[in-house]
Specification:
Endonuclease Iii, domain 2; 41% helix; 7 strands; 415 residues; 16 helices; Nucleoside Triphosphate Pyrophosphohydrolase; binds iron/sulfur cluster; 4 iron, 4 sulfur cluster binding
Length: 415
């Protein structure tokens, strides 16, 4: 078994743990932000007494993954208004879910939320699992973090959570400078979160720790002087007093401590507390080019209509609608791009499309989490009736308003 980490990276003093909980919770009670999913004062009580309700925490936590609070609020309110109960969500169609989710990104989240609600209704007799272990085991799309958040906030289980904000706070509190995305460090942080969580107010404690990371212990310019737990923070002490009071890297595990910064990247005093956390460099995103064509016709009332087609039901942007698009190989000449797009459109239209007729509009760049996508945008006006081939994937003509109300991605709206 690996040796336990040195004491400086742990919370091993019960008196310090108790003081940290007290200070953090008192700050949270004073300063917490008003967020719609906190409006239900008795969130836990409501969840316990009304098992048919869709747990607010579940929806908000799934929406908040990789997404800013300010963006989520409107989506969250519309979602809860439309599907307040597990039953209502279970009966929704994927199309409705995608329409409401349109613009929020990472579309599989909405789909899996709905699949999980169906599972609760059809296989678990409408009863949400109530422990982190069961939530993670039984519900699709619910990982360790979301399970911990639902179990602690909705059902009062004394279990910790570790998200990006908590990683930052804990790494600073305990001077953890090893790669914070490595499984070994993540495991230690979970252990730490489980030790720290307040036994009588676990949901509030977890939210307080995340709130601290979101509002005070922020990535670039943390507000250490206002921080309610600064007296427990080793990074802060190190910044204030230098290494006389806090053992240096070399004192910890004699240079091979698994939680200290690597010997090649020691403490940089110009960075202060932002020496922590550290992450291995990200892989560069994949570069992709896609030709897309906005096909336009006159609708029966004379208003322009545009053709949108549905993407496959799995993979990137699964089930969403888009203008007919074709991924391109890199370094294709423009003329060749046009020809390939014209051939692709011909398959949809069932009639020849002249490459020359495609009007180049411009390029749109959209960054997905791991893909740097450039859409090369063309347009084409069609005269007369167009019969679409029903054997191909679903397609439909929409007005501009209908386009915006459809389940289309932000990238397509930019196009
Ligand atoms: Fe973060 Fe500064 Fe507070 Fe430490 S003192 S937890 S670095 S805000």
């Amino acid at each position: 078994a690996p040796a336990p980490p040195p004491a400086r990276h742990l919370f091993s003093d019960p008196a310090e743990v108790a003081a940290l909980r007290r200070n953090l919770l008192a700050w949270y009670d004073r300063c917490k932000r008003d967020l719609p999913w906190r409006e239900l004062v008795w969130v836990a009580l409501v969840a316990l007494l009304s098992p048919a309700l869709l747990p607010a925490v579940w929806v908000s936590e799934i929406m908040l993954q990789q997404t800013q609070v300010a963006t989520v609020i409107d989506y969250y309110n519309r979602w809860m208004q439309k599907w307040p109960t597990l039953q209502a969500l279970a009966q929704a169609s994927l199309e409705e879910v995608n329409e409401l989710w349109a613009g929020l990104g990472y579309y599989s989240r909405g789909k899996r939320l709905q699949e999980a609600a169906r599972k609760v209704v059809s296989e678990l007799a409408g009863q949400m699992p109530r422990t982190a272990e069961d939530l993670q085991k039984l519900l699709p799309g619910v990982g360790r973090y979301t399970a911990g958040a639902i179990a602690s906030i909705s059902y009062g289980q004394a279990t910790g959570v570790v998200d990006g904000n908590v990683i930052r706070v804990l790494c600073r509190l305990r001077c953890i400078g090893a790669d914070s995305s490595s499984p070994a460090v993540i495991d230690r942080l979970w252990d730490m979160a489980n030790v720290l969580v307040d036994r009588s107010r676990p949901g509030d404690f977890n939210q307080a720790l995340m709130e601290l990371g979101a509002t005070v212990c922020v990535p670039k310019a943390p507000l250490c002087r206002e921080c309610p737990v600064k007296q427990h923070c080793q990074a802060w002490r190190r910044k204030l007093f230098g290494k006389q009071t806090v053992p240096d890297v070399e004192d910890c595990g004699v240079g091979d401590c698994p939680l200290c910064p690597p010997a090649t990247e020691p403490w940089d005093s110009s960075l202060g507390v932002t020496n922590f956390p550290r992450k291995a460099a990200k892989k560069p995103p994949r570069v992709m080019r896609t030709a897309t064509c906005v096909l336009e016709r006159r609708g029966c009332h004379g208003a322009p209509e545009y053709l949108i087609v549905q993407r496959p039901s799995s993979g990137l942007l699964a089930g969403l609608w888009e203008f007919p698009s074709l991924p391109l190989v890199q370094d294709l000449q423009e003329e060749k791009e046009r020809e390939e797009l014209a051939d692709h459109l011909q398959a949809w239209m069932g009639r020849p499309i002249a490459a020359k007729g495609l009007q180049f509009i411009g390029e749109v760049v959209h960054i997905f989490s791991h893909i740097h996508q450039t859409y090369v945008v063309y347009s084409l006006h069609l005269d007369g009736d167009v019969t679409l081939d029903p054997a191909l994937s679903p397609s439909r003509w929409v007005t501009e308003d209908e386009f915006h109300a459809s389940a289309v991605s932000t990238a397509m709206k930019k196009v």
